[in-house]
Amino acid sequence: MAGTQQYRENSQQENKKVEYPKDVEHKVHQIILLSGAAIAIFCGSILFVGASAGWFSGKPVEKPVEKVQLSEEYINNTTRHELNAESYKQLIAEQKSFILISHLPDCRAKILQFLKDYSAERQIAVNYMVWSEFHEIEKDSGIKYAPTVIIYNNGKIVDFLKSDSDADIAKYNNYEDFRAWLDSFVNLSK
User: CB within 8 A of 145, min separation 6: which ones?
Assistant: First the structure.
């Protein structure tokens, strides 16, 4: 019993509020406030940098889409152009605006039919290029997989479908989604 009484007295002494001088208490509050502000600034800068770099989505931050005016020879023309490395490099050097599908030989993916249907519907010519030749030239472009559809403006890649992206899966499987994506980039008027 005496041990219990001793324990209660010690507990009561430990629960007493310790009073610090006002200047020390003020300094502690300042440190807590400054620490909180530093953490908030740090978190805010991480969110800003992360969002602007597209870290959270895996894609660059969406910019307003500027429509691509296809080069004249691709409008009102449904010709399928098979490109090799030399003809591809020439289009880039001439700063042409066009649509290209890079694919594996004997590829039977729906997207090839989608592009053929789009070409006929919108009366535009499309370029085709075998993946091995395309990838040899554009290995640093960020395009990792085939088949992919790529939009060029003045010889530069504007956008492409990413088969490993959840955001693009519907475009590979549904013609309406595919058409909407291309229509959002391609200006079909002369």
Answer: 162, 163, 164
Q: From CA 7, how far away is CA 48, in angstroms rounded?
A: 54
Inform me whether the pLDDT recorded for 99 exceeds 50: yes
Residue 148 neighbours by CB under 8 Å, 6+ apart = 101, 102, 160, 161, 162, 163
Tokens of 87: 């003809």
pTM of the model: 0.65
Answer whether 178's CB lies under 8 Å from 117's CB: no
161 CB neighbour count, 10 Å cutoff? 22
Domain regions of the chain by residue span: 2-53, 68-187
The pLDDT of residue 41 is above 70: no
> Would you tell me which CATH number, out of the four given (3.30.70.940, 3.40.30.10, 3.40.50.20, 3.30.360.10), belongs to the domain 68-187?
3.40.30.10
Select the highest-mean-pLDDT range: 53-62, 80-89, 137-146: 80-89
Structure tokens at 86: 């030399």
